[in-house]
Amino acid sequence: MPKFGRKLTGGGMVKELLMTILATTISIVLTFGTAHYIEVRQAEQAQRQTAMMLIHDIDASVAIVEYLAESEEKQKNGISMETRLR
Questions:
Q1: How far, in Å, are 26, 30, 43, 76, 81 from residue 72 at the CA level?
Q2: Which residues contact 81 (CB under 8 A, 6 or more apart)?
Q3: CA 20 to 30 Å from 34, out of 17, 25, 80, 82?
Q4: At a CB cut-off of 8 Å and minimum separation 6, what does 8 contact?
C-alpha cells in the first residue's frame, strides 16, 4: 500500500476507509441532488414562461376581437345613419 506520511493500524485503516466512503457518498449525493434541483427549477420556469406567453396571446386575441366588434358596430351605425338620412 502507498504510504501517505503516517502509519495506519488495522483500526485506522478501517476508519480511513469509512471516512473516504462517507465523503464520496456525500459528494455524489450533493452533485446529483444539486443537478436534480436545478433541472426541476428550470422545468418550473419553462412552465411559467409558457403560461405567461399563453396569457399574452389570449389577451392579444381578445383585443383583436374587441377591435373587430367595435369596427363592426361603427359600420352598422354608419349604415343606419345613411338610411335615416334618405
A1: 68, 63, 43, 6, 14
A2: none
A3: 17
A4: 16
* Nine-digit cell string for 50: 409558457
The C-alpha cell that represents 62 in the structure block: 381578445
Regarding pTM above 0.85, the answer is no
Residue 16 in contact with residue 8, Cβ under 8 Å?
yes
Exposure string of 14-48, with b = 16+ CB inside 10 Å and e = fewer, is eeeeeeeeeeeeeeeeeeeeeeeeeeeeeeeeeee
State the alpha helices, DSSP H only, in the chain. 10-85
Long-range contacts of the stretch 33-37 (C-beta < 8 A, 24+): none
N- to C-terminal Cα separation, the chain: 112
Q: Which residue has the cell 422545468?
A: 43
